[in-house]
Amino acid sequence: MNADKLEIAKNWLPRYTGTLINEFGDYLLLTNFRNYVEKFADQFNCEVKGLNRPMQTATNSAGLSIINFGIGSANAATIMDLLTARNPKAVLFLGKCGGLKKSTEIGHFILPTAAVRGDGTSQDYMPSEVPALPSFKLHKFVSDKIIKHNTEYRTGVIYTTNRRLWEWDNDFKEYLKKIGVIGIDMETATLFIVGYANQITRGALLLVSDLPMMPEGIKTEESDKMVTEKYVDLHLKIGIEAMTDIEKKGEQIKHYRY
User: Fold this and answer.
1) Residue 256 forms part of a structural domain
2) Does residue 239 sit within a domain?
């Protein structure tokens, strides 16, 4: 007898997070950073769970949860598979990305209209011709909150790669210029495709944290600390407000596969 995917996910989601399935809310924020979870917990005076597990979580009294799933496309696929155990109503990724256009500056936000599947991981879920797309109605809620805060944001296509260290590779940089993508990260395409495969409503709000096409724009520990101090609070605030608003209005935002 074959193992059942849902039964595996129901076992593994608590194992990876230290959080029971019924302790997660209907709406979730995903991030790569533990400090986002800690800031969320401080704001809502709630417990951080999973401190001794691969993924940390927190859930506020309104039923909004946040999960730090780690870095990279493999982890992105893992959490989107495990979330089938909870079947959330919507998931928003709060990630960081490298800005690849002159019009993108550190501190800008990007709402991806799509993502190029350079990750490799997503090929295990859908054929290469399937585009990696967000649930656009979810992004409408997010864009409304960005505008409310009078903050700069861009839309465009993100390139998702498995390569963390590529900034030295001039051929790859020329390729990125040729295809015209606005930013680069390691998770967005994977989250979109695995979300699509698992029928999970998904979106992403990315913070431009570095400008890797220029030697002086490559991320360092010092520059990342500056970005965290100046922009992370607003990044998290917009995500919280958008997902809270969706829950309050109770709008149907799910995209169905036929």
Assistant:
1) no
2) yes
Distances in Å between the Cα of 53 and the Cα atoms of 35, 40, 128, 172 are 15, 18, 33, 35
**pTM of the predicted model as reported, rounded to 2 decimal places:** 0.93
For the chain, report the end-to-end CA distance as a whole number of angstroms: 28
CATH code of the domain containing 218: 3.40.50.1580
Residue 141, φ and ψ in degrees, nearest 5:
-60, -40
Is the model more confident about 257 or about 59?
A: 59
Question: In the chain, which ranges are E strands?
Answer: 27-31, 56-59, 64-68, 90-99, 109-118, 153-161, 183-185, 202-210
Structural domain boundaries enclosing 149: 5-249
Mean pLDDT of the chain: 92
As given in the structure block, the two tokens for residue 106 are 């550190």
Name residue 174's amino acid.
Answer: E
Cβ(247)–Cβ(144) under 8 Å? no
| CA–CA distance, 253 with 200 (Å, rounded to integer) | 10
What six digits make up the tokens of 101? 């256009």
The answer to the question of residue 69 being in a domain is yes
Tell me whether residue 123 is in a domain. yes
Which among 74, 24, 28 has a CA at the least distance from the CA of 54?
74
Tokens of 137: 């109605």
Q: How many structural domains does the chain have?
A: 1
Return d(Cα 82, Cα 69) in angstroms, integer: 11
